[in-house]
Fold this sequence. Notes:
By secondary structure, the protein is an alpha/beta fold. Helices cover 35% and strands 24% of the residues. The protein has helices at 40-50, 65-71, 75-83, 87-97, 113-118, 121-124, 144-155, 216-221, 233-240, 261-274, 279-292, and strands at 9-13, 34-35, 38-39, 55-60, 102-106, 129-132, 136-139, 158-164, 174-182, 185-193, 204-212, 246-250, 254-257. The longest helix has 14 residues, at 261-274. The structure holds uridine 5'-triphosphate.
Amino acid sequence: MTKTQSIHKAVIPAAGLGTRFLPVTKSMPKEMLPIIDKPVIHYVVEEAVNSGIDDIIIITGRGKRAIEDYFDAAPELEMRLKDQHKDATLKRLKEISDFPTIHYVRQKEPNGLGDALLKAENHIGNEPFAVLLGDDIISNRKPCTAQLMSVYSRFNASVISIEHVPREKVCHYGIIKGNEIEPDLIRIEDIVEKPSPEKAPSDMGAVGRYIFVPEIFDCLKNTDPGVGNEIQLTDAIHLLLRDHPVYAYKFEGKRYDTGDKMGYIETIIDFALRDPELRDNLRKFLSDRLCQD
Ligand code: UTP
């Protein structure tokens, strides 16, 4: 067995159209939707960094400039805050410019998640890497990406995060089939994109975190457009399985799908309920509001 390479690069695809959030996503990336005072993608980058990633590439596209501006330094704003002695705010702003350098590459057409990933091939080269979807927040003390890295380092193989999804929602996910080899860890036999509930091989759906061996790029290149006429990452994983083991891990933590309206509302409420400045007032507001209904 070849020596396990450590993972220090991550790809964050953020070039999707966000049609579920139109019209706001007409002029604003869904990855920039605010969770109180930080955009969704801030939490995604933070998870990567807290997992030990020091090289991040974000896949962007038309109308996604706000992402680059957000992660850029803001010297004039910092100077003004300093003059006004707004030290706490300044510190929060500096946390952003202290993130490792972020690289950007554009996906010219939103031809699917698989196509977006292919745009990172030159930057990633011949090494294993992490993928974190730009609109999924996963909250846990040990970051989900770090949990996947632990599995990767044991098996020297690709690993994807999964969770149980309600039967009626399997048609929105890549659904796996496989054998549980130890609690929470499955060796994947097959994966299908967006099956109907009747055809789904299980109720275990792939969610927004992955570790891949670099061979995934060849699989992506050999993947024809699938569901929605897009290059589906799930179909490339199906090809990868022919010659390479792929594992699925039931991660610890709570996943928030902020690309979905209800998921977005749940995220804001949960994050506000955890915030000492907002918690008490929000609780009161919610209980008064619910009593009125
Ligand atoms: P989604 O399927 O949730 O994104 O992709 P979408 O297509 O923008 O959403 P809807 O269904 O139209 O509302 C998950 C992640 O992959 C990125 C998205 O930006 C999101 O972060 N993505 C998706 C790309 O980078 N390129 C694509 O072509 C598609």
